[in-house]
Write the structure tokens for this entry.
Amino acid sequence: MAKPNYQELVFDITRLIPPGRVSSYGAIADYLSLGSARMVGWALRTSFVQDGVPAHRVVNSKGELSGRANFTPPSLMQKLLEAEGVKVENDRVVNFKEVFWHPEELGW
DNA sequence: GGATTGACGTCTG
DNA sequence: GCAGACGCCAATC
């Protein structure tokens, strides 16, 4: 059945994140009306194994790479972010508010 | 089928 | 302003 799971929803939003930008769980949760940021974290956790989903662009509201431990290797998350132009230091996004991206920015 | 877990966020003290 | 507790809903064991 073509029943879109939460994963697909978070998937879609995560894939829409432009390079050099980072999104937060709360923003995605709010955009998808999930009601809980945990849903986003859980979805990404089970989805980060998928390809084409820049899960490394999704951080918590503090700009911390919370899920870096799930990456292989964990430093890969920071490496990918830096490779896209997002400066990461101390496992946190530098100028987080400047690189912060919201799904509503797509223009709907 | 039930209990636990999970990349967080928000509220209250 | 900081710290701790709760809530949220679905998937997995």
